[in-house]
Amino acid sequence: MRTNFFCFTKQFVFVLGMLCTLQAFAQQYPFQNPNLSFEERAEDLISRLTLEEKAALMCDQSEAIPRLGIRKFNWWSEALHGYANNDSVTVFPEPIGMAASFNDELLYNIFNAVSDEGRAKYHQHLSRGNENKRFLSLSVWTPNVNIFRDPRWGRGQETYGEDPYLTSRMGVQVVKGLQGPEDAKYRKLLACAKHYAVHSGPEWSRHELNLNDVSPRLFHETYLPAFKALVQEADVRQVMCAYQRLDDEPCCGSTRLLQRILRDEWGFQHIVVSDCGAITDFFTTHNVSSTPVHAAAKGVLAGTDVECVWENYPYKTLPEAVERGLMKEDDIDKSLKRVLIGRFELGDFDDDALVPWAQIPASVINSEKHQQLAYEMAQQSMTLLQNNHNILPLSKSVKKIAVIGPNANDEEMLWGNYNGTPIETISILEGIKTKLSDKKIFYDKGCDLVEDKVTESYFSQLSFEGKPGFKASYWNNAEREGQPVISQQISSSIKKTTAGQHEFASGVKLEGFSALFEAEFIPKKTEELVFKGGATGYFELLVNGEQLQYYNNWRTLPSRIAYQFEAGKKYNIEIRYAQLNNWQANIELDFGKEVDVDYTALINKLKGIETVVFVGGLSGKLEGEEMPVSYPGFKGGDRTNIELPLVQRNCLKALKAAGKKVVFVNCSGSAIALEPEVETCDAILQAWYAGEQGGKAVADVLFGDYNPSGKLPLSFYKNSDKLGDFEDYSMTDRTYRYTTDYLYPFGFGLSYTTFEIGDATISKATIKANENTQLSIPVKNTGKRTGTEIVQVYIRKVNDVDGPLKTLRGFQRLELAAGKSQRATIELTPSAFEFYDWSERKMAVTPGEYDVFYGNSSDKNDLKQLSVKIE
Q: In sequence order, what are the beta bridge partners of 790?
C-alpha cells in the first residue's frame, strides 16, 4: 500500500511539474498572451518564424511547430448544408432547396446550428487525443454564392439560385450563422465566400477555361453582388478564388480581383484561400507560370494567402522565390499576418477555457432541435409546380397507392453533395409509410435513374477456394502489407462504408486501412457482363491481371464496366481498395448481366391501383463537382442536356398510357426540362435534395399535412434548345432576368390555397438617389386553408436597353389563415435602384424613371406595376 501511494505521489508531482512547465511556456512569448490584440500577437509570432515555417503556415494543411507550441491546423472543412464529411451530424436540405424557402431568417438559425455542431465535433475529436485534420476544422469553405446561370452546371445545387439579390440575402445569413456575433471576441467558425468571382461551370474545363467576354455590366450586376454583400454586410473572414482565368489572369493570380476590387474597393481585410489545386493550375493548365516557384510567387503577390492542394504545395517553395528575388519576405509576412489573425480569432492559440464556443457540448450534434430545423426547412423547400384537378393532397383513406421510381427508397439521394452522414434518414418511401399502412402501399423501383437496363446479379456464380462469393481480406495499413487483420467471405453484392463509424469488418480501423476482394468466375456461356458500383478512396478492378478501372476519389461515383467473358474460361477477379486522406471509406459493387427494363411487367403489377407516386429526377451521384464518370446526358458532373433521363421519361409515359393518375416527385439539384411531364403527370412536386428529414416533408405535402410554399430560385426551361454554349458567360436567354422563354419562372410555386394581391401603395413615388421608399402590398388568403405566400418585388430601369428585364429587389413571407388579409411591407433602399452606369463605369443610382413590379412570381402575368422617379 505504501509502495502504491509512493508511486502515485511521484506521478502526481511529475504531472504537476509538467503542467507548471507548460504554463510557463505558454506565457513565454507575447503571441501567447490572450490580453494582446490579435494583430499584435500575429506580428510577434511572425517575427519568431523562419521563412520555411512561414511558408508552411500558408498551406491549408499547416503542420505543427513544436518549438513554439503551435499545433497542427487545417483550413479545409465544409459546411454547405451541415458539417460535411462527418458522421452523426444533421444534414439539412441542399442550398438550392433552402433557397426555395425564401426564408433567410430560418437559414440563419440553421447555420447557427451547423456552427454549433462544427465546434462540438472539433473539440470532441481533439478531446479524444486526435489531431486536427481535413474536414474536421474550424475553417469552413461555405457558402457557395456563385450565380446558377446555366442549369447544366452540376454544382449549381450548392448555390442559392440564379438571382444576385436572393443569393446575397441568403449568403449573408449563412455567414452570420457560421461566424457568430460580430461583437464577440472569438469567431465561432471562419466562413468563406466562394468561388470568387465569375464561376459556374463547366466542370470539365474549369482548370483551363479563360473567360474574356464577360461585359463590365454583367460582371458588376450579376457576378459580383453576392460577394460584395458577404464582404461588406457579413464581414466574411475568407474568400476563395476560383480555378479559371478571367481576362487572361487566373482568378487566384488576379490583382484586379484580389487587390483593386476585393481589398481597395470593398475594404476586405481578411484571408483569401485558393480553390484546391488552383495555384498548381498556373503552370500545368493555364501556362501563365513556368514553375511551381513562379506560381507560388504570383499567387502571394496577387493576394492569395492560403494555398490548398492535394499534395506537393507550390507554396512550400516560397523561400526559394525570395532567394531568387521574385518577391520579398515582407510580401509573405503581409499575407501570413492575415492567416494568423484568422487563427487567433478562432482562439486556436488560446486555452479552450477562454473560448466560449469551445464549451458547446457534443449533445447538440444532431439534437432534436436541429432535426426539427432540418424538418422545417425541408417542408419550406417543397415547391409545387403542377396540380391538375387538385389531385393533391392525396387522401389517407385511399384503398391503395403505388410508390415507384429510382429515388423513392434512396436515402443517400436526399443528402445531395458536400454532405455529412446523419444518424437517421427518412426516405420518401418511409415518409409515405408514416401516412398509410403498409398494406395500402405497393412499392417497386420501376426503373433506374439513367440506365434503361437492370442488372441480373451473377454473385451466386462467383467463388473463392470453394466458397461462394468474394474472399475479403483487410489490413490496418494502406499498402496491404503483412498479414491481414481478418479475412471473410462475401456472398452477395459488396456494400461497405465507414459512415456512422461502421467498420468494414471486425478489428478493421476506420482510417488508414486497405482491402483485397478476390473471386473466381467460370462463365456458363459467352456473354457480356458488367461490373457496377463505385468507391470513395483508392479503387482498382482487375480481371486476369488486366486493369479495367482505377481511380482515387473523394466520393463514391457510379460506374459501369462491361467485359466480354468466354464460356468455360477461368477468370480471376480482384478489387484492390484503400481508405486514403480523410475521406470516409465506401465501396459498392454488383456484378451480372444487364437486361432490358420491362414496363409491361411493371404495369401488370399495378393492376387495381389508380394513383402512382413516381419519385425520380437526378442524384448527387450524377450531378456534382468534377465527376470522372459519364452517362448519356452527363459529362464530368455536368449535364449535356436538361431533359429528364429517357428511361424515367419512358416509364412515366407507360404509366400515363395505362391510365394511371401520376404524381411526379422530382428530386434534383437543378432545373429539369419538364415540358413532356406536364402532359404525362397530373401533379409535379419539386423536392430538391431535401436532407435527412426530406421523406417526412415530401409525405406531409403529398397528404396535405403541410401546405407547400416553396418558390423556384431558378427558371425551369421548356427544353435544352436555347441553352447555348455552356462556356459562354453572357446572359443571353439565361435566367428570368434576360429571358421570358421558360416553362416555370423564377419565384413560381403553387399552394393548396389561393391568394389575392391587391394594389400597392408607396410612401414616396419621387425620391432622391440617397433616399428610401416603402412599398405596402395588401395580400388576402382567398382559399379554404392556411397558407404562406411569398411577395416579391422586382425593379427595372425604364429605357435601359441592355439591362435586365427585371431584377429582384425585395421579398417577404406572409402566413395567412383562410379569409385573412395582411400587408407586406418592403423597404426599398437606394441599392434597390442601383444598376451599372456605363458613363461612370461602376454601379450607381442614377436619375430617371423606374418600373416597380410586385406579385408572387417573376412572370409578367403574376405581377402588378407602379413607377418611381429618382431626381
A: 813
Catalytic, out of 221, 235, 410, 623? 623
- Please tell me whether residues 388 and 267 are part of one structural domain: no
Distance CA 585, CA 583 (A): 6
Residue 431, domain member (yes or no): yes
Running DSSP on this structure, what letter comes out for residue 396? T
DSSP H or E stretch at residue 378: helix 368-381
Q: Write phi, then psi, for 554 (nearest 5 degrees).
A: -95, 5
544 inside domain: yes
What CA dihedral angle connects 97, 99, 100 and 101, to 10 degrees? 110
Identify residue 334 by its one-letter amino acid code.
K
The active-site residue out of 162, 163, 249, 275 is 275
Q: Is 275 a catalytic residue?
A: yes
pTM: 0.91
Report residue 796 as a C-alpha cell.
427595372
Question: How much is the mean pLDDT over the chain?
Answer: 94
Q: Alpha-carbon distance 618 to 689, whole Å?
A: 9
pLDDT digits (tens, 9 = 90+) for 302-333: 999 999 998 899 999 999 999 999 999 999 99
CB-based contacts of 489, cutoff 8 Å, min separation 6 = 464, 467, 468, 469, 470, 471, 472
Q: What is the DSSP string of 201-235?
A: --GGGTTT-EE----HHHIIIIISHHHHHHHHTS-
Q: Decide if 273 is inside a domain.
A: yes
Question: What is the model's pLDDT at position 747?
Answer: 98
Of 326, 349, 364, which marks where a domain is finished? 364
Are 551 and 618 in the same domain?
Answer: no
pLDDT digits (tens, 9 = 90+) for 265-304: 999 999 999 999 999 999 999 999 999 999 999 999 999 9
> Rounded distance, CA 178 to CA 79, Å?
9
Active site residue 78: no
Residue 181: φ, ψ to 5°: -55, 135
